[in-house]
Amino acid sequence: MPATEVHTEGETTESNHYEFAYHVLPTVAEGEVASVVEVIKSHITNGAGTITTEEAPQRIDLAYEIVKPIDGTNRRFRSAYFGWVRFTAAPEVLAELTEELEGTSELLRSITIKLTRAEEAEPFYYHEALANQKQVSTIEDDSVAPAPAPREEPAKEGDTDTSSETETSETSETDAPENK
After folding, report:
1. Of 17, 43, 64, 166, which residue is the least packed, with the fewest Cβ within 10 Å?
2. In 10 A of CB 158, how many CB atoms?
3. What angle do CA 50, 51, 55 make, to 5 degrees?
4. Biggest alpha carbon distance in the chain?
5. How much is the pLDDT for 47?
6. Residue 102, class by beta-carbon neighbours within 10 Å (0-12 exposed, 13-18 middle, 19+ buried)?
7. Would you tell me how many other CB atoms lie within 10 Å of the CB of residue 98?
């Protein structure tokens, strides 16, 4: 659930911890991505938020194609620069802050979420985890034994096997008693 929908009446106005995760359009030059991040961070600090930690955006392939209308044309994107910023802010300023952040034209997608205490204590660094991911490689070695041949399954009731029908019909002709 987006963080703007979580605030309920009677809740204390103490600052909460949030994460703003975003995809910067891949059409933004790599050198300009840092300035987009600075705009995001300035929206947060101008909205009475305090930045606690962040992960700088890096270009990634998206899990699926995203279509976004830009200048009256639907554009299709298969990659983007992904990053996030964690911050603290009062719940009453969150709706306005989220509207400002999502209005940034260089963003493909974004979401603001309220963090739990566990999430707050242990941030997940996506790019670091991706870099440490074990790579699977194919071993091409002649000394490796070939895979066993597939076993033939026994015939089941109702299955027809043309080879056994032929044998049966030949056998029945020769073994059939003669009528004289």
Report:
1. 64
2. 5
3. 170
4. 111
5. 84
6. middle
7. 21
How many angstroms separate the CA atoms of 17 and 3, rounded? 10
Q: Tell me the CA end-to-end span of the chain in Å, nearest whole number.
A: 89
Neighbour-count burial of 74, counting CB atoms closer than 10 A to its CB (0-12 exposed, 13-18 middle, 19+ buried): exposed
Q: Which residue type occupies 22?
A: Y
- Per residue in 116-132, is it b (16+ CB within 10 Å) or e — as a string? eeeebeeeeeeeeeeee
Question: How many Å apart are CA 78 and CA 65, to the nearest integer?
Answer: 5
Question: Where does the pLDDT of residue 27 fall: very low under 50, low under 70, confident under 90, or very high at 90 and above?
Answer: very high
Domains contained in the chain, CATH given:
3-124 (3.30.70.60)
Q: Among 41-50, 109-118, 130-139, which stretch is predicted with the lowest mean pLDDT?
A: 130-139
Examine the pLDDT at 30 and tell me if it is beyond 90.
yes
Sign, CA dihedral 73-84-62-6, equals negative
Residue 111 identity: I
The closest alpha carbon to 100, from 24, 21, 41, 43, belongs to 43
Question: Tokens representing 148?
Answer: 């066993």
Distance between CA 169 and CA 105 in Å, rounded?
78
